[in-house]
Structure formats: structure tokens, C-alpha cells
UniProtKB/TrEMBL annotation:
SUPFAM superfamilies: MTH1187/YkoF-like. NCBIfam families: MTH1187 family thiamine-binding protein (TIGR00106). Belongs to the UPF0045 family. InterPro entries: MTH1187/YkoF-like (IPR029756), Thiamine_BP (IPR002767), UPF0045_domain (IPR051614). Residues 3-92 form the Thiamine-binding protein domain. It comes from Streptomyces cinerochromogenes. It comes from the Bacteria. The lineage of its organism: Bacteria, Bacillati, Actinomycetota, Actinomycetes, Kitasatosporales. This is MTH1187 family thiamine-binding protein.
Length: 97
């Protein structure tokens, strides 16, 4: 499964990068395949391990912010691995035509 999620602290002002970095640090330390871009962090693995990472990432932000917003989108597709890479490679092949 791939989960794309965004954790945003609320009530801390406009500069939230330091808080978001706390969440991304949790993902990176998880050892699961992941990618971070300007809007979301995607992480790939089994249901329980991915949801545990999301929960811990939210907790990291929640520890310093009075309120947290979580946006989550999941691609649940049993038997598929390396989807973070293969999905992008498929699109790139079509673009190269």
C-alpha cells in the first residue's frame, strides 16, 4: 500500500517547516520507502507499518502544536511492491513516446 499524507500544525503561525520536518524525520527513520514533495509525503509498506508511521508522524507534530490537520490518501493494492517507483516509471514511459 502507498499512503500519501500531509500533517499540518495549526495555531503556530505561517512558518510550519520546522514542525513538518519533525513528521518527515519520523518517516525517514522508519526505513520504509518514501518520498516527500512540497505537498505530501508518500510512504509504502504493509497496512499496519504504514499507519504506525503516520500515527507517529502526527504525534511528533502534535507534541509541539495545539492542533494538527491530517490529510491522507491511500492506494491499497495487495501484492504490489515498489509502487512509488513503478508508477512514476510508467508515466515517464508514456511521456517519452
Amino acid at each position: 500500500m502507498i499512503v500519501a499524507f500531509s500533517v499540518t500544525p495549526l495555531g503556530v503561525g505561517e512558518d510550519v517547516g520546522e514542525y513538518v520536518a519533525d513528521a518527515v524525520r519520523v518517516v525517514r527513520e522508519s526505513g520504509l520507502p518514501h518520498r516527500t514533495d512540497a505537498m505530501f509525503t508518500s510512504v509504502e509498506g504493509e497496512w499496519d507499518e504504514v499507519m504506525d508511521v503516520v500515527k507517529r508522524a502526527v504525534a511528533a507534530v502534535e507534541a509541539r502544536a495545539p492542533r494538527v490537520s491530517l490529510v491522507l490518501k491511500a492506494d491499497i493494492r495487495p501484492g504490489v511492491t515498489d509502487g512509488l517507483t513503478s508508477k512514476v516509471e510508467t508515466v515517464e514511459r508514456y511521456l517519452a513516446r
